[in-house]
Task: structure prediction
Amino acid sequence: MSIRTVACPACGIDLEVKDSKVLTCELCGHQMILEDEKKMPDNIDEIFEEVKKRYVSDAKELKKTMSGFTIAAIVLFVVVFVVTIVFMMKSFNSANDAMMKKVFSDPLETSVQDSNG
Ligand SMILES: [Zn+2]
Result:
């Protein structure tokens, strides 16, 4: 339990805040109604610390997400690259085969077809 003091608005002396909602000044008798005292921050450093903690955890989460994203992007790039290379090799081979076939067997086939039909 923390002891809090409030300065009397009338005479300015420090008054100890008790559990009751109404505080009466010991010197001048000025009465104050204490409302929402827990809403007021006791320490600005606590709030700053809380904000900093939240910000840092957010930054860490973002960093984690970003590194995961980077790894996924690299894996995807490698997969696409390998698939492209394989596809290119295959299409090159089939094109090469087709060209070779055309060069070496087309005249024969054409002549056979010609004589047949
Ligand atoms: Zn007073």
Remarks:
- DSSP finds one helix and four strands in the chain.
- Residues 1-40 form one domain.
